Amino acid sequence: MSLEITEEQIASWPPEAQAVVRLLMAEITALRLEVAELRAENVDLKNRLERYEGPKTPQNSSLPPSTQHPHAARRRRTASKRKQGGQPGHRKYERPLIPTEECDATKVLKPRKCRRCGTGLSGVDSAPLRHQVWELPKIKPHITEYQRHRLKCPCCSQTTCAALPEGVPSGQSGPRLMAFTALLMAYFRQSKRRTSLFLGDLLGQRCSPALTVKIQNEVSRALEHPYQELRDALPGEDRVFMDESPTKQAGQRAWLWAVVTPLYAVDSIFMSRAGTAVDTLLGSEFSGFVNCDRAKMYWRVENLQWCWSHLKRDFQALIDSPDPQAKRLGHDLMRHVTALFKHWRAYHKGRISRRAFRCRMAPVRAKIDALLLRGACSGNKRFAGMCNELYSHRKRLWAFVDHKSIEPTNNTAERALRHAVIWRKTSFGTQSMQGSLFVERMLTVIETCRLQKRSVFDYVTKAVEARVAKQPAPSLLPGV
Q1: Which of 70, 168, 263, 337 has the most CB atoms around its CB within 10 Å?
Q2: What is d(CA 85, CA 342) in angstroms, rounded to the nearest whole number?
Q3: 243 vs 238, 290, 292, 386, 408, CA distance in Å?
Q4: Which residues pair with 402 in a beta bridge?
Q5: For residue 454, how far is the Cα from the chain centroid?
Q6: 261 falls within a domain
Q7: pTM higher than 0.85
Q8: Is 250 part of a structural domain of the chain?
Q9: Which domain does 315 fall in, by range?
Q10: Residue 220 belongs to some domain of the structure
């Protein structure tokens, strides 16, 4: 909205007010001119910076892929000579026929007459062609009414009402309905309004957005104990993957942290990106390795493996730079990084042994260290600081070579955060602490069930059933 003050309006005011208004309008005009100049200067500086350093893209920086337009020009790979679609000899995916006795209905179809001469036909085909059609049944909610009688004692006239059986919730939503509603919001990333519409239109379950909030809080309380069990187990792990992503809570900036182990994951929301979150999640007794990027808050952990996928983007930024010296160093580093990933894939797929992998990595390691030392001593402000940091902490580059259980990238944590990032973009974060608890507990359960190849719907249903029965929820710890 813009406020327009005319001279006629000013003339109708007292002289003191006219002086103040004219003074303020003069200052506003001066500030607008200054803002316009600063904006023009900012645009000019950005253009000059891009010409000097090259544009920042997800391929050469830490920018997320979602910041780049889908139709933006990207570095194209060598075109494949294969045609689009399935390739000859690929595995065929089809829905197999189930046994006839498991079908809900069987219809026997026999031809009445010959299709050629019209003669009547009879008999039975010993091997008829089987055609099965899958269809959804008419969805109707299953409603159970409990009639609780209140009776008066003939002796003392005290009335007593029958209690609900064990395992029956006090509300109108059963455990399966609550678990399904929670998954619609957390697993399938639907808003509360769309969740209520889905339940009402497709399932015949009357539901309002306010009821979805109540169900959300009830499911969150059901998952509290197994979630805390997983958090308490983190300090005893020998290797974890960690990453963080910005989010919002009640309009304020917050951070979603993910800690992933081979068989479970823990998501937690903190109001800060500071290293205290690392201390809170891993504890002071943690002595394992952390796969992460080069962010300073992870440096408080002694054993780190820096992500080579992040380093690859840093080296690509050198290649994209207009500085010839940076380009040369970037190309030299990228050549050996390509060899690094080639040897790792061969080892990871079982084509070479651990001993052969370490032998092949020895010259790659020596050459990359030498290139980093060359960059650190070059005096070029564009990359000398980065190279000096990498060379000074080169132990954090090669933990995956020295230790068998370590991986060279942090892709595991980034994959675990991908679902949360997409959910955040559609929901714009949470509006309360209760909402954040639901998010971190549901994300933890979803990713842990994926890693353990368990049905997340079955688990959440059992957890809600346990809460209704006032029993502890089943554990998510491996081997429990």
Answers
A1: 337
A2: 27
A3: 17, 10, 6, 21, 15
A4: none
A5: 18
A6: no
A7: no
A8: no
A9: 309-409
A10: no
